[in-house]
Design goal:
The structure holds 2 protein chains of 2 kinds.
Chain A: E1 25-27, E2 33-37, E3 47-48, E4 55-56, E5 61-64, E6 73-74, E7 79-88, E8 94-102, H1 122-131, H2 144-147, E9 158-163, H3 172-179, H4 181-195, E10 199-205, H5 209-219, E11 225-230, H6 239-247, E12 262-266, H7 267-279, E13 285-291, E14 299-304, H8 309-315, E15 323-328, E16 335-336, E17 350-355, H9 373-377, H10 384-392, H11 412-416, H12 423-433
Parallel strand pairs in A: 1-14, 9-10, 9-12, 10-11, 13-17
Antiparallel strand pairs in A: 2-8, 3-5, 4-7, 5-6, 7-8, 13-14, 15-16, 15-17
Chain B: H1 3-7, H2 24-34, H3 36-46, H4 48-71, H5 82-92, H6 101-116, H7 128-139, E1 147-148, E2 161-162, H8 165-181, H9 184-193, H10 205-218, H11 224-240, H12 251-256, H13 260-267, H14 278-298, H15 305-322
Antiparallel strand pairs in B: 1-2
Helix pairs in contact in B: 2-5, 2-10, 3-4, 3-10, 4-5, 4-6, 5-6, 5-7, 6-7, 7-15, 8-9, 10-13, 11-13, 11-14, 14-15
The chains are: A alpha/beta, B mainly alpha.
Amino acid sequence: MSRAATFERGIHPEYHKELAAGQSIVRARLPQRVVIPVSQHIGAPATPSVNIGDEVKKGQVIGSTTAFVSSPVHSSISGKVIAIADFPSATGRMVQSIVIESDGRDEAVPFKEHPDYPNLPADEIKAMIKDAGIVGMGGAAFPTSVKLSPPKEKTIDTVIINGAECEPYLTADHRLMVERPEEVVEGLKIIMKSLGVRQGYIGIEENKPDAIEAMRSVVSGESNIEVRPLEIKYPQGAEKMLIKAINGREVPSKGLPMDVGVVVQNVGTALAVYEAVRYGKPLIERVVTVTGRGIRKPANMMVRIGTLMSEVVEQCGGLAEDAVKVIAGGPMMGFAQWTLDVPVVKGTSGILVLTKDEYVSSDEYSACIRCGSCIDVCPMGLNPSMLSILSEKGFFEETKEYNIFDCFECGSCAYVCPAKRPMVQLMRLAKSQIKP
Amino acid sequence: MATEAKAHELIVSVSPHVRGKETVGRIMWTVNLSLLPAFVMAVYYFGPRAAYVTGLCILTAVLSEHIYQISLNRKTTIGDGSAFLTGLLLGLNLPASVPFYIPVIGSFIAIVITKLLFGGLGYNIFNPALIGRAFLLISFPKLMTIWTEPTARFVALDAKTTATPLGILKEGGLSQLMQVFGDKTELYMSLLSGNRAGSLGETSAIALLIGAAILLYRGYITWHIPLSFLATVGVIAWIFGGQGGLFTGDPVIHLISGGLLLGAFFMATDYVTCPTIRKGQVIFGIGCGAITMLIRLKGGFPEGVMFAILLMNCFAPLIDRGVKSEIFGAIKEQKK
């Protein structure tokens, strides 16, 4: 077939995918309790629609919203609401959460099935997606129904399913594509229908040949859906990089994919869309890759939303002796945790446990030696060296001249910097001190 | 439930949580190693004196940096290999016959004045080794231009002084050069192997190219500066360097004479003092080449590499500002 597509610059970190890539998805134990934050997404938080003491069933709405850029939240188990309070989240912030104690019965509310889903009109599909609480499951957690409702002046002609999974260690999307390819493709078709789009692509990095093959055989009958192999490079899974690789279009600076007629969705999101539209099932569980040398038994777990990470970690053999860091997400952009008592939410793609050897301290760093390695790798073509120096010396306004707001904090610059400078932190510092 | 976390003290820091393997030390010490072939050839051609001069440079460089930093209650940075490199490069830029105070003064100027007083590694405007050499040349013009025959064969330095090929070229042109060395082939062989007078490190072209190959392979330097520097020298030498009118010059002689290879691969490429953006590095290299040839052909000195690089060092920040990097999604005409 054609050579693998790619974008300019980027890095090739050590991937360590073999730790979990071969592990079939395993259902996690039904949790004793779940902690469901009312905000697991970008946009307005949901408002609790239950009270302490209420009995709830699996799939029942427990947090509702009327805002456009928002999403409802559902209970992922059956049981009783025992608390509605602020709880620590994986991002470090306290978020209002609804705590439900399981009754062990795992009873669900009735789900409305639609066997005739290919005939559903676009508006109904979008309403169902919103009601199901579906948000981007690649990590950004943007409400999917909003992404599928671009302003009228933006014509969308392409949908891309993001199967790149470029973060090292993570394999959740990989396993979904290998084990449930038909459902992912059906999800893609529903998404295309809701946007009135005729061309669909599935981008998959070449380090997942089994996924490429599985998805290819499913779309072999479809004339307008194509699987595109991608060069193994970070951050290939970033929206803008993915679009550039798949059809060569460059999302304009400070713009969005819809500006070039494209909508990108994660593999997990596509699957959730299918389950919501076909089976009426809201977003109440997701695949989480539990991996790293610091976890005794790496696995890809199907976890109920709201399950505490400590429960998931326990089911994977617990932390190894020399575990020093637990990260929610991947090693390049994930959040380090100070406690395991935080819930898995809709955007939690992985629980990564690093050992002493795998982790590098950023405590000591030197001045920028101007080697230019960061400029060679920045996917957005920025000058991270200059940005870091400006930020370090307090020249925050000047960073605007160097397009700092195009930086999406992928961490490539920090990865290659020989002076071990805290590049991403310096970017964030500058951004926090100025207005876009 | 929380017992797992209690048993482990989890480290919390900002992403990214993994890093590449490169460090400043790894880069600097690799460059030091890449100059080993040139150093070995220096001792071969100029004897133990070469090791003495170079060693004194390195020792002074490392000691001055260490003492300066310790006395200001700062952490010493001599472990990163950059002071060692400055000392090594300065040593390789000196004639073999200099008395002890030349390396000492030169290294002190290079490290303390040119590098540390400006803020240390990353903040200096000028190439430290070259400022050291420039200072010495201007302060001790006689001592810094006494060149010895390269006949030591590791053992002892002949006291016989002579002129460098570029010196001969300036005085008597190509014809005199060929009188001294023989026909073109013999001339090229001498220039490539290092069998000619010059500073310690500049003579053995092949040894230098081996070192350059190591750095290119590791990706520590790229083609941008050396190629643009050398190509500019070659083209100008060809057009203007000949005795019989335009386009009669011999680019090869200019390319393998003097400190050009040492300068183009090891000194103009110094990270701190050259532009960071690749397109800017090409402009920098062209400027270095042009000024080098201007001095060689029209200036008072037979060799121009050192001054060319120092002058271009002044322009490096300006070049970086002028040649901005290509932003993804910049609002401009997209090339098809």
